[in-house]
Structures are given as C-alpha cells and as structure tokens.
Amino acid sequence: MQRSARSGFTLIELVVVITILGLLAAFGLPKFFAVQADARLAKMNGAMASVKSAAAMAHAQLLARGYDANYTGTPSPGIVAEGTTVVYANGYPDASVIAALAGLAAPDYDVPAASATAQAVRSDANHATCEFIYNEATAGNQPLYTTTNLTLANCQ
After folding, report:
1. How far is residue 38's CA from residue 43's CA, in Å, rounded to a whole number?
2. Contact of 78 with 85, CB cutoff 8 Å
C-alpha cells in the first residue's frame, strides 16, 4: 500500500498567512514612513554641517593667505576648493559657490539657483519645504543659516 505524498498548503494555512501579512503591513507602513522623514531630516542636518564646514574652511584659507577677514571678491591667485574657485562676500563664500564647496548637488539634493545673497538647499524636488538657507555673511559677521523649514513635518 502506497501513501500519496501531500504537497502544497491548505486554504486555511494560506488565509492565516495572508491575514498575518496584512496586519504587519497595517502596523508597519506608518512606522516606515516616519523613519523616512527622520532620515530625510538627518540628511539635511548633515548637509547643513557640510555647508558650515565648507564656509569655515574657505574663510580659513582666505586668512591663511593674508587677506582681510572681510575680503569681498575673488582673490588672485584664486583659491580653489572642490574644483570650485571661491568667490567671497565679507570673508566667507558667497551664495553662488557654497553648495559646490560643500559637495551638494543633484540628484542627492535640490539646489536651485542662488539669489543675490542666499542659497537654498532642499532635500529633493518632491520635498521643497524640507530646506535650509545659507545667507551670506555681512561685514564683521559669519554667514547665517535659516532653518525655519527644517522640521520633521516639512520633511515628510
């Protein structure tokens, strides 16, 4: 007498597995999206730190070459960092070069054209409110970083 080998799953087993997967998805997806927003916010905080570091490095290079702490313009010979000739505004990089100095570019970041004195850096084109703004230094001051929009709510 031979026994027939049973293969496959019963309908009950399949229904139980599908139900468990549905429950995991219902509870897991909201947590996943919250983690994405946290990661996006952390990415932007890291980008802002890169911008601050690039500004400090460029300022230090300017001072090391004997220029005034409030120098404005392009030194001769030029100071080149990250393949970019640094243009200064009151001793710190101006808005047109800061993103390149910090290594921020597409596709990782959305960096629209700089205004006369400010450069916005956005997480990406789909999260335009997840941003910080680099404001050029004024005489005797360091650059300002506007982080009003750099919140978890704006980075979702």
Report:
1. 9
2. yes
Output the six-digit token pair for 87: 């243009």
Domain ranges of the chain: 11-146
- Smallest CA-to-CA distance from 121 within 85, 78, 155 is with 155
Helical ranges in the chain per DSSP H: 11-64, 98-102
pTM summary value: 0.79
Please give the Cα distance from 113 to 141 (Å, whole number).
24
Q: Which amino acid is at 34?
A: A
Per residue in 140-155, pLDDT (tens digit) is 999 999 999 999 899 9
Written as one letter, the residue type at 29 is L
- Residue 133, classed as helix, strand or coil, is strand
